[in-house]
Specification:
Length: 369
C-alpha cells in the first residue's frame, strides 16, 4: 500500500448496517492503525446495531437535530481542517459545513440516485452542491449508473466523477458449503426492510411461487421500518407458514448457507451489494433488471428478470430452470471476486487520497462553456 502520510476523517450519516457501512470495518483494517477517525451524523440508539463497535477508529457523534449535528461537525472539522475528509452520501449541506470549516482536502462518495423530490428542492440542492464542491475535492460514485444520475442532476455543471465499485468480494464472503439434499426450495432476501426495496411485491411473488411449488420456503434477512407492515401483509395471504422474517444477522453465511436462491426485486439501487454477495457465496440470483443491477450482471443477463406485469411468469420460468442459473454461478463468481474486490476498492481510495496531496491542477467543477 505504501507509506501513508495522511489521516482520514470518515463522515457517515449513520452507523446502522447499510450497504457501505457493513463494509467499512474491513476497509479500515486494511489501512495502518490510526489512519481513520469517524464522525457519525446520526448517533445510534442504545440498542441499535453499530458497525463501528470494536473497530480500530475513534468515533465522534453528531445529533438527531440537523443544526446541532452541523454545529458539532463544524467544530470537529475546524480542529482537523488539514486532514483528509471523506463523506459518504451525507448530502451537500453537511459537505458545505466541511468547506466552511476550512477543510481543504475532501473526498465525497455518491451512493444514491434520489437527489431531490421537487423543483424547489432540486434548485436549492444544486446551489448547495455548487457552493460545497471545492476544486480541490474529489468525487467518487459506486457505479456508472449513480455517476450518470448525479451528472444529469448537476447539469449544466460538469463535475469529474470516478467510479469505484463497492468492496463486496472480501473475507466476509465465504462460499456456501455443500449441503445435503433437502425437501424444500429455500429462497431468501437480504437487506433493509425499507421503502424502495419492493418488498410487498416480493411477498406477492413468494405467494405466486409457492402456488407453483408448494415446497418453496422464503426467508427475509434484515430489519427496518417496514417489518411490521410486511409481516401483516404476509398474514393477509395466510403465508406466515412459509414466509419467515429472520431479522438482521451479521454473519452472512447464516443467510446464504441455507439458500437455494436469492430473489431481489428492488425498484431503485445505486449499486446492489447483496446480489454480488449471493453470487460470491455460490447462490444463484433472480434480480429485477434495474440499471445498476444490469451494470453488475452485464455479462450474465440470465440472472435478470424484467419489471412489469410479466415478471411473475418469468420468475417461475427461471425457477423451473434453476439448474441453468446454478451452472452460471462459478463463472460469475470468478469475475465478481476481482471486479468487486476489497483490493480494488482500497487501491481506489488510496489513489483518491494521494491525489489530494498533489498540486491543484484539476478543476473538478466547471460550467458548460
Amino acid at each position: 500500500m505504501g507509506k501513508m502520510n495522511y489521516k482520514v476523517c470518515l463522515v457517515h450519516y449513520t452507523s446502522a448496517p447499510g450497504g457501505i457501512e457493513l463494509l467499512m470495518p474491513e476497509i479500515i483494517r486494511m489501512f495502518p492503525e490510526g489512519t481513520f477517525s469517524v464522525f457519525v451524523i446520526r448517533p445510534p440508539g442504545d440498542k441499535d446495531y453499530n458497525v463501528y463497535n470494536g473497530v480500530p477508529a475513534e468515533v465522534f457523534r453528531g445529533s438527531e437535530n440537523n443544526l446541532a449535528a452541523a454545529w458539532r461537525l463544524w467544530r470537529y472539522a475546524c480542529k482537523r481542517r488539514h486532514t483528509v475528509f471523506h463523506g459518504f452520501n451525507t448530502g451537500p449541506f453537511f459537505l458545505l459545513v466541511l468547506r466552511l470549516a476550512g477543510v481543504k482536502r475532501a473526498v465525497y462518495s455518491v451512493r444514491g440516485t434520489l437527489h431531490y423530490t421537487g423543483l424547489l428542492q432540486k434548485t436549492l440542492r444544486k446551489l448547495a452542491w455548487r457552493a460545497a464542491l471545492s476544486s480541490r475535492y474529489r468525487i467518487l460514485a459506486n457505479s456508472g449508473y449513480s455517476r450518470d444520475v448525479f451528472m444529469k442532476f448537476m447539469a449544466p455543471f460538469k463535475p469529474h466523477i470516478d467510479v469505484l465499485y463497492n468492496p463486496v468480494g472480501s473475507s466476509r464472503i465465504k462460499p456456501a458449503p455443500e449441503m445435503a439434499a433437502r425437501e424444500s426450495l429455500n429462497i431468501i432476501y437480504t437487506g433493509r426492510l425499507a421503502d424502495g426495496k419492493n418488498l410487498f411485491r416480493w411477498i406477492e411473488m413468494a405467494v405466486a411461487i409457492h402456488s407453483y411449488r408448494s415446497d418453496a420456503m422464503f426467508f427475509l434477512f434484515g430489519d427496518g421500518p417496514l417489518r411490521k407492515e410486511l409481516e401483516e401483509y404476509c398474514r393477509s395471504f395466510g403465508a406466515e407458514g412459509y414466509i419467515r422474517f429472520m431479522g438482521f444477522v451479521s454473519d452472512l453465511s447464516e443467510a446464504y448457507g441455507r439458500a437455494d436462491l436469492m430473489m431481489f426485486l428492488s425498484e431503485a439501487e445505486s449499486f446492489g451489494n447483496v446480489v454480488v454477495e449471493s453470487i460470491l457465496s455460490g447462490v444463484p440470483v433472480i434480480a429485477s433488471a434495474i440499471p445498476s443491477v444490469r451494470e453488475i450482471f452485464q455479462d450474465f443477463p440470465q440472472f435478470l428478470v424484467p419489471e412489469g406485469p410479466g415478471m411473475e411468469q418469468v420468475i417461475i420460468d427461471r425457477i423451473a430452470g434453476i439448474d441453468e442459473l446454478r451452472e452460471a454461478v462459478p463463472l460469475a463468481s470468478q469475475q465478481f471476486s476481482k471486479r468487486f474486490s476489497l483490493e480494488q476498492h482500497v487501491h481506489g481510495l488510496c489513489s483518491a487520497y494521494d491525489s489530494l496531496s498533489q498540486p491543484e491542477t484539476d478543476i473538478l467543477l466547471s460550467q458548460d462553456r
